[in-house]
Amino acid sequence: MPNFWAAKRVVPQLWGVFCRTQGLGLKIFFVFRILRILICRGDIPMLHDYRLVLCSCPDKNTAKAIAEKVLRARAAGCVNISSATTSMYWWDGHLHADDEVMLAIKTTTTKLDELFHLVQESHPYDVPELVAVPISEGSPAYLQWLADVTTATNSSS
After folding, report:
1. Which pLDDT belongs to residue 96?
2. Which GO molecular function, any one, fits this protein according to its record (predicted)?
3. C-alpha span between 48 and 50 (Å, rounded)
């Protein structure tokens, strides 16, 4: 939830009008107006603009290759590679259990399509697991870093 004391410092004219306004409808209008200004100025990050993408890989080498590919393309800011874990799943009408390595890929919504394309073109599975989960909260500094590194120009390929 945004800090309305920060709004009082950042948007003093609207805050003054908000405090003097009678009626719930007008107060709601001013709350949204203040939030819009704060978001546009970057004082409140849009937390739902970030995603954590989960992707399973058959082994560590495949996971590292995919991680490097998406990072070099700036489609992600960070990729965590897990130790081997056992995945159980249905495939071709049969229950399977295999060792897999999980990727936890941090990205932005604007890079999601590019990320999915990069993973799908290099992944050995017919149907790679690609699940994007919204990041509902996070350190503003980390989220800003994530936005910065995924919008930076690619200096090393």
Report:
1. 96
2. copper ion binding
3. 5
Task: Provide the pairing of β-strand 94-108 with 78-91.
Answer: antiparallel
Q: Which residues contact 74 (CB under 8 A, 6 or more apart)?
A: 111, 149, 150, 151, 152, 153, 154
Asked whether the beta carbons of 157 and 61 are under 8 A apart, the reply is no
CATH number of 48-151: 3.30.70.120
DSSP 3-state of 91? strand
Burial class (CB in 10 A: 0-12, 13-18, 19+), 100: buried
Lowest mean pLDDT among 47-51, 81-85, 112-116, 126-130: 47-51
Percent of the chain with pLDDT over 70: 67
Which residues in 63-126 belong to E strands, given as ranges? 78-91, 94-108
